[in-house]
Amino acid sequence: xxxxxxxxxxxxxxxxxxxxxxxxxxxxxxxxxxxxxxxxxxxxxxxxxxxxxxxxxxxxxxxxxxxxxxxxxxxxxxxxxxxxxxxxxxxxxxxxxxxxxxxxxxxxxxxxxxxxxxxxxxxxxxxxxxxxxxxxxxxxxxxxxxxxxxxxxxxxxxxxxxxxxxxxxxxxxxxxxxxxxxxxxxxxxxxxxxxxxxxxxxxxxxxxxxxxxxxxxxxxxxxxxxxxxxxxxxxxxxxxxxxxxxxxxxxxxxxxxxxxxxxxxxxxxxxxxxxxxxxxxxxxxxxxxxxxxxxxxxxxxxxxxxxxxxxxxxxxxxxxxxxxxxxxxxxxxxxxxxxxxxxxxxxxxxxxxxxxxxxxxxxxxxxxxxxxxxxxxxxxxxxxxxxxxxxxxxxxxxxxxxxxxxxxxxxxxxxxxxxxxxxxxxxxxxxxxxxxxxxxxxxxxxxxxxxxxxxxxxxxxxxxxxxxxxxxxxxxxxxxxxxxxxxxxxxxxxxxxxxxxxxxxxxxxxxxxxxxxxxxxxxxxxxxxxxxxxxxxxxxxxxxxxxxxxxxxxxxxxxxxxxxxxxxxxxxxxxxxxxxxxxxxxxxxxxxxxxxxxxxxxxxxxxxxxxxxxxxxxxxxxxxxxxxxx
Length: 630
Hints:
Blueprint lengths: L1 E8 L6 H9 L8 E8 L4 E8 L13 E3 L2 E9 L2 H10 L9 H12 L9 E9 L4 E6 L8 E5 L2 E5 L17 H10 L12 E3 L4 E6 L5 E5 L4 H4 L8 H18 L7 E4 L4 H12 L6 E7 L6 H11 L2 E7 L1 H7 L3 H4 L9 H12 L4 E3 L4 H5 L4 H12 L4 H17 L5 H13 L4 H13 L3 H7 L21 H28 L3 E3 L5 H9 L2 H4 L7 H7 L5 H4 L10 H6 L3 H7 L2 H7 L4 H12 L7 H16 L2
Parallel strand pairs: 13-14, 13-16, 14-15, 16-17
Antiparallel strand pairs: 1-3, 1-9, 2-3, 4-5, 5-6, 6-7, 7-11, 8-9, 8-10, 11-12
Helix pairs in contact: 2-3, 6-19, 6-21, 7-8, 7-21, 9-11, 11-18, 14-15, 15-16, 16-18, 25-26
């Protein structure tokens, strides 16, 4: 819907033009309208701003900041059930002057206070100023579909949809956080609540923050979290009833995300998730829904299969075959689009398909989260099989076995770093209970060997805990643990970040029907076998899709967006490594060990580097550093 930004300055030094500069950095998120307002309180100055992408109520009545009584709000996202909430409020005596969901937020807060957020079905980052109570509230949606950053140091709080706005405030101190940098090297993203900068944070999904404008007191509270639903007993429900109920929830979630006063389309890859969304929506319509697919001559190419599905379902299908040149030209833009280091190379095709879709629609549905919600990833059974093999070792022998594995890791030469890392992970996890064991194995499988990080970083590195260190003792089983962790970590911080920035970079709103919180709660409570039966992942979702599309069409190896990035870096894009990963370029930032990076690059060019993803992570960091730190 838009981008939002603002400040709370207890030093009263922020000039009004500064906020204009901050929100101008988010023009791509909201090219249709811009609003900037400033407020003065005894202890501080407050500024609220919004760059609007008009989706619901395209008139001037939807302008933000929006006000009602003592309340003012700027808001990024959509409240899909706003009409039902509006009707309820009208019955309580509220009167409305617009058709926007933003106005409903104001009235809902005036009626129910912070509890109003529990009524919202949607994606949102909301900043609400209560001038009478002299408090400001920040709310983030349950899944973290919409981003929200805040900076708090020396009496200054900044907030924004993207980090890049903070660079326009003269008091923003951009100091790299070494512990967050270590997380980036491990995962290729920086998980919430951390960012690349010290004193800068992401508000966690399902939480709200309140700031007292007199006392400077900050409170962060949770209003929803998915883990609690994985801790409850499985629902006593038959497979047929569960399938019927899930089907209805999918229909509701998808239909809600078609609510707009502008054209809406769907990203269609031809996999189960996007096919489910497309099939459900097209089956209820006589008019053709626009669907969009990007194809590649190199890498995984899902375009032919997506076209076949689109023809079967009867959509108005658009496909674009991307050339190598088109894909490569996006790479220099990535540091601006993803304004902290981000190393998922599928950001390139995601941006390209967004660019194609924007020519036809203003909103696009993206069917992310099917794998994390319904157990679709291949590593789930692999990880459980690995844990089962470890647990064949008698309990009485596990202490000794753990010591032997760790010793084996120590004695294994660095030329066999992958084996060294696996032995250490197994020795680390072997004595834990089953739930914590699977969490530890998943964690170690997602991180780099310590030898890489220790040799890479010049300064001694500290560390932060992440979703992998969540207390899993109360979760129902090992699969529930993995689903909950991947939801917290990979889905939220990689996939949703990738889609939000790629879509909003071209002023396209991305919506996520599979992240409707009602659907998440229901799926979390299903018997594990309905999701993974020991052979088939996404079992219950697949059976729903087979009602619309022949099973033999869908039953194929799992694929996804991927490009031959490492082939390019060894061939036509090798100049990027020469420019950004040379010993001179590495020495200039004084973060990484130049000789060790050179060793990694030479090993990569010789085809001997097992952890090839590290090269892309280093390249993305160096390009980011040059863009935002030089």
